[in-house]
């Protein structure tokens, strides 16, 4: 389910998505001002390869779904599609492969928001005049000038300030109900976070790791005696040069130049490697080294390897204070989504939704 929005800037010459965004605890509920479709001339500016993979949309203001008798139009649907995939504004359409999924998600969202709005009206939730004024002022800030705002109202709302107020109020009603039924109830106490941490202690354990850079000399399979001799000479030369390096960068540049293994393109950096994933001779050597040390040459079959130790992290467990903030956010997000799903299911039970 798509739940988050961004604030997009409106330009009079291109009908961008406009939204009055109302922040709540874990997400945002957007008040949707209508949007048009980017003019066809914009598509001509796209590279032909990109245009061929994009699906443009046309708005006819025709109903696409009825929610308890209230018709929502393709304009509402397209606006939501742009909210889900704002990148489409730059390319006059949606990727053909993603368009069905985006459309489906957008349809689910406009149905849900209409149900929330209708429930808020049923409960007779009141929006104060002061809150309405603040919201309208925030909405106007989305425009670069009064002329641009007036043009928008004329083009999209037929000049009706009353309709604008109605849509602002609708957004605030949706926000208010979602805040009380979802956001506020999704709060997680510190005690709950600690209980989860203690119950899932293993999740916060981490293994012993070594951060290393490697240089490997790897002759082809079944090498001749001459090739073996040359490989050994290359390995010994690489060791001598590696021992002379003083920094991560110096060793890395040498790895890029002389190493045959797959990590040479990343300065030989293997990042953090679990102890269990390393050959015992490498572990044995690394345990005797300090960060910045370069190992001696090691031979594995026909291959030669040496490494630089960048860090050694013993096995351990993340402390509660290290993870509590992120864990709480994750738990609240999970609960938020669960409560939102439950609310949607409840509102859908007795609703009449007709796709047209």
Quickly give the CATH architecture of the largest domain.
Orthogonal Bundle
Assembly annotation: single chain
How many β strands by DSSP?
13
Could you name the CATH homologous superfamily of the largest domain? Porin chaperone SurA, peptide-binding domain
- Tally of domains: 2
Describe this structure in words.
By secondary structure, the chain is of the alpha+beta class. The chain has two domains: 195 residues, Triger factor/SurA peptide-binding fold; 107 residues, Chitinase A, domain 3, CATH 3.10.50.40. It contains twelve helices and 13 strands. The strands form five sheets. Strands 9-8-11-10 form a four-stranded antiparallel β-sheet, sandwiched between helices. It has a three-stranded antiparallel β-sheet with strand order 5-4-13. A hairpin with a 2-residue loop joins strand 10 and strand 11. It is elongated and about 85 Å long. The N terminus is likely disordered.
């Amino acid at each position: 389910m798509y739940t988050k929005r961004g604030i997009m800037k409106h330009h009079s010459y291109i009908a961008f998505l406009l939204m009055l965004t109302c922040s709540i605890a874990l997400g945002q509920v957007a008040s949707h001002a209508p949007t048009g479709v980017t003019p066809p001339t914009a598509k001509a500016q796209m590279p032909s390869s990109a245009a061929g993979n994009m699906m443009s949309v046309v708005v006819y203001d025709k109903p696409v779904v009825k929610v308890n008798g209230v018709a929502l139009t393709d304009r509402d649907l397209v606006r939501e599609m742009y909210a889900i995939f704002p990148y489409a504004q730059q390319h006059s359409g949606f990727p053909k492969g993603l368009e069905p999924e985006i459309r489906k998600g957008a349809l689910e969202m406009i149905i849900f928001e209409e149900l929330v709005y209708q429930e808020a009206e049923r409960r007779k939730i009141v929006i104060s005049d002061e809150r309405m004024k603040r919201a309208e002022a925030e909405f106007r800030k989305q425009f670069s000038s009064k002329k641009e705002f007036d043009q928008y109202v004329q083009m999209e709302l037929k000049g009706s300030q009353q309709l604008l107020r109605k849509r602002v109020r609708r957004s605030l009603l949706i926000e208010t109900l979602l805040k009380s039924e979802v956001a506020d109830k999704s709060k997680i106490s510190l005690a709950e976070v600690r209980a989860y941490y203690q119950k899932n202690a293993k999740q916060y354990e981490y293994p012993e790791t070594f951060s290393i850079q490697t240089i490997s000399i790897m002759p082809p399979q079944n090498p001749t005696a001459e090739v073996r001799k040359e490989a050994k000479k290359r390995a010994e030369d690489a060791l001598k040069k590696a021992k002379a390096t003083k920094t991560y960068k110096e060793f890395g540049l040498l790895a890029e130049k002389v190493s045959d293994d797959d990590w040479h393109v990343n300065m030989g950096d293997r990042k953090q490697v679990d102890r269990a994933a390393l050959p015992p001779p490498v572990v044995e050597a690394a345990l005797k080294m300090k960060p910045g040390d370069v190992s001696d040459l090691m031979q594995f079959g026909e291959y030669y390897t040496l490494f630089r130790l960048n860090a050694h992290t013993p096995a351990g467990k993340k402390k509660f204070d290290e993870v509590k903030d992120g864990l709480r956010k994750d738990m609240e997000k999970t609960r938020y989504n669960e409560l939102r799903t439950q609310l949607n299911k409840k509102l859908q039970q007795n609703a009449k939704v007709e796709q047209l």
